[in-house]
Design goal:
CATH architecture of the largest domain: Alpha-Beta Barrel
CATH topology of the largest domain: TIM Barrel
Shape: globular
Strand order of the largest sheet: 27-26-25-24-23-31-29-28
CATH class of the largest domain: Alpha Beta
Number of helices: 14
Structural class: alpha+beta
Family: Belongs to the glycosyl hydrolase 2 family.
Strand content: 25-35%
Domain Glycoside hydrolase family 2 catalytic: 339-487
Number of domains: 5
Number of strands: 48
Keywords: Glycosidase, Hydrolase
Enzyme class: hydrolase
CATH superfamily of the largest domain: Glycosidases
Helix content: 10-25%
GO molecular function: beta-galactosidase activity
Distance between the termini: 93 Å
Amino acid sequence: MKKFHYIILLAIITNIPIAKGQTVHLIQYAIDLSGDWRFQMDSLDKGVEQQWFNRKLSGAIKLPGSMATNGKGNEVDTNTPWIGNIIDSSWFFKPEYAAYRKKGNIKIPFWLQPVKYYKGAAWYQKTVHIPAAWKGKQLELFIERSHWETTLWLDGKEIGMQNSLGTPHVFNLTNLLTPGAHQLTVRIDNRVKDFDVGVNSHSISDHTQSNWNGMVGKLALTARSPLYVQDVQLYPDIHAKEVLAKVTIGNSTGKPVTARLRMLATALRAGAGKLKPVTREIELTGDSTTIEMRYAMGPAPLLWDEFNPNLYTMNVQLQQGANKDEKQVQFGMRDFKAQGTQFTINGRLTFLRGTLECAIFPKTGYPPTDIDSWLRIFKVARSFGLNHLRFHSWTPPAAAFDAADRLGFYLHIECSSWANQGSPIGDGKPLDQYIYEESERVVKAFGNHPSFCMMAYGNEPKGKNHVKYLTDFVAYWQHKDPRRLYTTGAGWPVIDKQDYNSTPDPRIQAWGAGLKSIINAQPPKADYNWKDIIGKWQHPTVSHEIGQWCVYPDFKEIKKYTGVLKAKNFEIFRDKLNNHGMGKLADSFLLASGKLQVLCYKADIEAALRTPGFGGFQLLDLHDFPGQGTALVGVLNPFWEEKGYVTAKAYSRFCNAVVPLAKLSKMIWLNIEELNIPVEVAQFSAGPLNNATPVWSVKNEAGNMLFKGQLPTTNIAVGNAIQLGTIKQSLQNIQKPERLTLTISIGDYQNNWDLFVYPVSLPDNNQEILVTHQLDATAQETLEKGGKVLLTLKKGTLRPEKGGDIAIGFSSIFWNTAWTHNQPPVTLGILCNPTHPALKAFPTQYHSNWQWWDAMSHSGAIILDSLQKGLPAIVRVIDDWVTARPLALVTECKTGKGKLLITGIDLLTDQDQRPEAKQLLYSLKQYMAGETFKPVTRVDAKKVQSLTVGQP
């Protein structure tokens, strides 16, 4: 006899666990459809014409899952019909990629590579057996997430089509699914539709989650009373201490009925007071009726926010004679609002510290639907000091909302579209209507979640009428549903009547800014903010996609890709590094570039925190973005794991609810100066910090305490740009070059900065060393006589083919070089041995820090192979992983009978205004004068001469 698997629908749909021993009335039933299905690919799109819905399919597949997770599809090749723009198409024709275009060794650099690929129609089929007890009930097919368009046939009869990208596909089968055996046939088509949401949208593209075909999450046939709770939307009012409930009742009995509706809210926190039920007799005359009821939440309802994510469950019961139905809805009492130019949560100021989630799930190629996976993601994000997540051009499954509810995360949701680069919005195309339909579905499915605080149509729109369209879209939702805040699109446009602005203006590196950005064009400091930028707007501003700072690939990560997406791009980059003889430096490049990446993110985040009246930021990204030519912008990998160069504890010092801030006018100091550093705090904790005493200290690199003090004890309100006092300290006792660490603490919160102090005067050492801008006759004569020459190249004189065309700057690479058309800088900072004697008088770590800003801003990167293959470097420049050239700022060699030290840094021009250059030159000369200056590799003088323009 066939066994039927009945499970409680409540547990399926809402993911609320049933307590052990709890009595549950089996009012709603479901048949779990996970497991074996019949399957067939339809690559020629003949299935409808040939009526595959009227026959048994021949193949097999396991669901939930995708074709790729089942090993089905085509091999990737040069003709794979990807979804997603490829900005740098050189892979298709450049000789250097020829080996990766061969059958059996296909490796692409654009994004993670699926083991199998398929774009088109595919058919899924299952025979189900309906019990007699289901006769006369409300019956539905529930598909939690399908990718993409689903068309359903029941016993050969077409039922309908659904195409939501962000919500479940639910088909009404009442009066069609009679007791007995039936054949369900589902056709899924993952090709771009008439309503083109944009080929780069993370809801559909191969850039991130992959263009998968299948059904995931909960798959079930459900049976409910013919009189049933169709929908419940709850509108909390924390001021009135009540909830307005809009309950839609479905009636498939075909006649008017009288029923009793009962509501009871229960707090999920142990020890909370009990609330009273509310009951009403209702008259139902049509197929669907919406009832409004107000539910009192007691004298002191528990509020939901990031610090106290208190949740309630509203149980809605419907009874009419023997017909019973119920629905449980999770909600929170919260009020997320715009107050002037800032956000408030329940009347208290808050600041959004966010990152993006771009549907990056390499193991499956599609998002998880279980709550544990999402709890892990949010917990990792919280450990790095974040309280906010933006879903870029896609909507996550219910489990993401459930997890965010539990942990107190503020979510920005988008309606599955990035209408740009060939897909405009607002121009009267089918997408315009689809966005309204999809937003309606998203709000209906997830609108009760307290974490669902913000919504936009999608990302960075385009179209001649997009401003008008999105202005109307915002107005529509502001009027219809006040439970959250609305903006036009992530990135733009900024309009007067939206609830908050999303704009890339307030950040330290703009797209296309290159070496003209704050971090590359201005000497290092930490006292600027975005007050002047946001001052022209009346609404809260969230800075769009700040950061985008790259790090070198972690090739150890390749083995982690055990699922359907593989890091073949990393294999290409690893081969390139090995081919240039630097494979052993891979881990060093990762760690050194990672330290610079963190420094850049710290500068970005602190600038936002220093800005009075600011709303918050959204990073791009806390974890890596594998698409768009590979954008390694995360301090975490795509699996939300640390890479080894920064911990959550260290990162959360400058990214947290409370962050002490030193307003440093510069990072480089002379020992005749006095530190004069205003101190402030960004304080967005659960309430005021009373009787707080900020303390500060300065230690040297050995960890010895040099100075310390405290600022006045005070009560610190919630807010930012709160002045705490000024640190004043003379540096005259520091007689040698030092890297100092300034630390400021407020209770358990601590932040720190590296400062560099140099002596104002240095001895005129080593007159016998010739320092020159070019290897002229005098320099050659010196070398021929066995002398020592320090060749310091003037910026702009290095020949293009020797490295002069390599645009270097202080910062890391922004996004990547492929997608930005080689926006400078195209390098990732320096790598050196800090104990090398050449750097003894120039304190440094193995990576870039602020004292290297001057060098990187006055230099060219020398391609070492242009002098001699295998020439060692004292200070390396880390090249873009795509080109992986051996680059140096400082190297040495034997030339003639003498010894030559070559640096791509101009250490002579304007030296009096450049203490770092003066100190580095001193350190190099001290090294050259000593016994340890013993270059090994010989380089011909003509090769050295050929480095610079104007030399033979």
